[in-house]
């Protein structure tokens, strides 16, 4: 099968998200200029550089009260900071609850029953029990083609790792089984890993 996205795929559901999988989930926590906290998951997320460490996430929809985007991007525009929280399998339900189309004044930490902690290098809350959290300073927001497509880039200024996830000095993802986004309404979790040496090593 071949299709041009501009012509449509002719399938019951869009296969694009099922093709580009698995995708890590960035559970982005922000704080508005009014002090309101907001955690929200984004599956268009990844690390993009080592030195200095940098990450990105993309927001692709909008709310009527947020000037063409969503609460996360709106808050970051106002404050210049955000925190990326890693999602473990055990937190799948509270993560999902925080993804709802809640009103701007709703605090998703409270609504979903998520314990929060204050970040160290930025004025923002993080998910206290997350396996890892990356405190970030905004570097740029890029608008992509499409009405509400914004990519947010940030430099990591602080890193939290849960102690039980460190095994012999290695951050071991099998201890918490990171959740990843598949297509449609599907998710997956990482339960085992393997290593490959690069040519010449």
TrEMBL record:
<dbReference type="Pfam" id="PF01613">
    <property type="entry name" value="Flavin_Reduct"/>
</dbReference>
<feature type="domain" description="Flavin reductase like">
    <location>
        <begin position="18"/>
        <end position="173"/>
    </location>
</feature>
<protein>
    <submittedName>
        <fullName>Flavin reductase like domain protein</fullName>
    </submittedName>
</protein>
<dbReference type="InterPro" id="IPR012349">
    <property type="entry name" value="Split_barrel_FMN-bd"/>
</dbReference>
<dbReference type="GO" id="GO:0016646">
    <property type="term" value="F:oxidoreductase activity, acting on the CH-NH group of donors, NAD or NADP as acceptor"/>
</dbReference>
<dbReference type="InterPro" id="IPR002563">
    <property type="entry name" value="Flavin_Rdtase-like_dom"/>
</dbReference>
<dbReference type="GO" id="GO:0010181">
    <property type="term" value="F:FMN binding"/>
</dbReference>
């Amino acid at each position: 099968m071949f299709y041009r996205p501009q012509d449509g795929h002719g399938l019951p559901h869009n296969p694009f998200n099922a093709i580009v999988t698995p995708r890590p989930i960035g559970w982005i926590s922000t704080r508005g200029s009014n002090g309101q906290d907001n955690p929200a998951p984004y599956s268009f997320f990844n690390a993009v550089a080592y030195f200095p460490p940098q990450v990105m996430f993309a927001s692709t929809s909008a709310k009527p009260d947020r000037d063409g985007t969503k609460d996360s991007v709106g808050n970051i525009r106002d404050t210049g900071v955000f925190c990326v929280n890693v999602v473990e399998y055990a937190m799948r339900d509270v993560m999902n609850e925080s993804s709802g189309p809640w009103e701007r004044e709703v605090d998703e930490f409270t609504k979903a029953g998520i314990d929060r902690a204050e970040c160290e290098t930025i004025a923002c809350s993080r998910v206290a029990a997350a396996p890892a959290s990356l405190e970030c300073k905004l570097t740029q927001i890029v608008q992509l083609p499409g009405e509400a497509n914004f990519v947010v880039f940030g430099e990591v200024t602080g890193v939290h790792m849960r102690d039980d996830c460190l095994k012999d000095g290695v951050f071991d993802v099998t201890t918490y089984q990171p959740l990843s986004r598949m297509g449609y309404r599907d998710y997956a979790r990482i339960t085992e890993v393997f290593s490959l040496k690069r040519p010449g090593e």
